[in-house]
Amino acid sequence: MTQRPLRFFPPIATARRRLFRSGAPLSWLRTRAVSASLSRRGLGSTARRVSAWDLDGANGSLGLYYQDEDPTVGIGLDDVASSSSTAWLDAMHSDADDVILDVPGGKTAALYQTFVGGPEDLITFIRDSERRIVLVSVIGTKKDSLPTIADAIETFDSSVEHVVLKNGFFGSSDEFIIFDGTTDDRGQKRFGKTRELAESVRAAIVYLPKLSPATDAVLDEAGLSFAKGVDAATTIGRRHAFNVASWLKLVEKAYAQTPISIDGAAARRV
Prior knowledge:
A hairpin with a 2-residue loop joins strand 1 (about 5-10) and strand 2. The protein has one domain (about 5-210). By secondary structure, it is α/β, with parallel strands linked by helices. The two termini are about 15 Å apart. The protein is built from ten helices and eleven strands. It has helices spanning about 25-40, 85-90, 120-125, 145-155, 175-180, 195-200, 215-220, 225-230, 235, 240-255; strands at about 5-10, 10-15, 20, 50-55, 75, 100-105, 130-140, 160-165, 180-185, 190, 205-210. Strands 1, 2, 3, 4, 5, 6, 7, 8 and 11 form a nine-stranded mixed sheet that branches. A two-stranded antiparallel sheet has the order 9-10.
């Protein structure tokens, strides 16, 4: 039986059919990364049924872009810190191809607070709904985003699939030297411990291409998602709409053959 994914964006989490994500101190960065994943809802042959949740309740930043609180077309709101928070858990047993959870920074533990057995019980609950778990840690070039990776691995170890997503807003793929490591003038290795940790659990390392800052700013001002921006030439201008469409193709290519592939053909670990 084929398992559906769950994804978390970081960590973000996805259950694939699903996705989960938990937040670092980079809320805007994570919001745009999750929005790129949500674009799969309406892009022709790659369209998928996505149930998306912002677990920061009424304070969730994704609500700025997806004002419809129906999780199948917009963003469902739930407060993961509340012991009565159950809607996102029920979504695991829905018919959505993917469930995306945007988890606020510092609240990863709240995901399993109501489970007697802690994170192990949460994983079992999700897998009982025939979903795979993909935990996505979104990072920038500075060290402040790296603890989220260590937290994700310490909490869930290799029992879930990990993805480290380099956000191109902060630089080119080879400029994440604190994460990747570098060699100084004396030939000594510096930094890179976090990448070594990620590789120890066979994490996929993916680079999210940079969207033109001008186009991103126009989208932000208009309050549009990426998917809606493709067809919004009359609102944001033909050039910006074209840029969004081209960028989404680059994102799809970057995600291909990884656990966060746009078409849902997530790479399976052997």
